[in-house]
Specification:
Layout (H helix, E strand, L loop, with lengths): L1 E5 L13 E3 L5 E9 L6 E11 L5 E5 L3 E3 L4 E10 L5 E10 L11 E9 L40 E2 L10 E2 L2 E3 L5 E4 L3 E2 L14 E2 L1
Parallel strand pairs: 2-9
Antiparallel strand pairs: 1-3, 3-7, 4-5, 4-6, 4-8, 8-9, 10-15, 11-14, 12-13
């Protein structure tokens, strides 16, 4: 069995993985999986394989170091410093546990992750609303941090998806801070309209 997730042990926000990378701002990606031998025999040459499916139909395979895995044993496998290509489009990563022996239950041995490279968008979301938080009708602040390495870029908008915990008539604003947390600019107040609000799983974003 393989249980995979993005590496959440990065030392700072600059290298945290995104779901959408702005073209020219892609980071090296790190893959990590916890693989367990659920069988009764030693599995030889166990390793993590990541098949990278790229825009345009090309692909490549990445492999971690290999080891033997005893019955009921679990081990963490990693692949580090994969340079995400800069071509615009969707990249699918098929993460699988592989070994020399024939797999008896292939259905629990792989998972898929996708990231995108976009000419205009930088994001750490899945493109859908996944919460209905309302904070008990009290004001609150949400934020995210992105490292922009290229000079001369312009920010045109902050896109926000509002969930069912948001009330029509609520006021929201977007603010931008630099790396020292000094305020750079702030939007005008935006009044939430009923059609701005998503149900869980909704994909409607507004630009502030």
């Amino acid at each position: 069995a393989v249980h995979a997730a993005w590496n959440e042990l990065e030392p700072d926000y600059a290298e945290l993985p995104c779901t959408i990378y702005l073209q020219g701002e892609a980071r090296d990606l790190h893959f990590q999986a916890r693989i367990t031998n659920n069988g009764s025999a030693v599995q030889e040459n166990v390793r993590l394989r990541v098949e990278v499916l790229m825009p345009g139909g090309t692909s490549e395979d990445l492999y971690s170091e290999a080891t033997a895995l005893a019955p009921a044993a679990t081990q963490i496998f990693t692949i580090t410093d994969y340079a995400l290509p800069g071509a615009i489009g969707t990249y699918t990563f098929v993460m699988s546990a592989v070994q020399d022996q024939e797999e008896e239950e292939p259905g629990d041995n792989s998972t898929n992750i996708q990231v995108h490279v976009d000419p205009n968008v930088f994001a750490r979301d899945d493109g859908i609303v996944v919460t209905e938080r309302d904070n008990n009708d009290e004001d609150y602040i949400l934020g995210n941090r992105f490292l922009i390495t290229a000079s001369g870029r312009e920010l045109h908008a902050v896109d926000v998806a509002l969930g069912p915990g948001t009330d029509p008539g609520a006021l929201i604003t977007a603010a931008v801070y630099n790396g020292n947390l000094d305020l750079v600019d702030e939007s005008e107040l935006y009044i939430v309209e009923p059609e701005d609000i998503n149900e869980l799983g909704g994909e409607h974003f507004i630009s502030v």
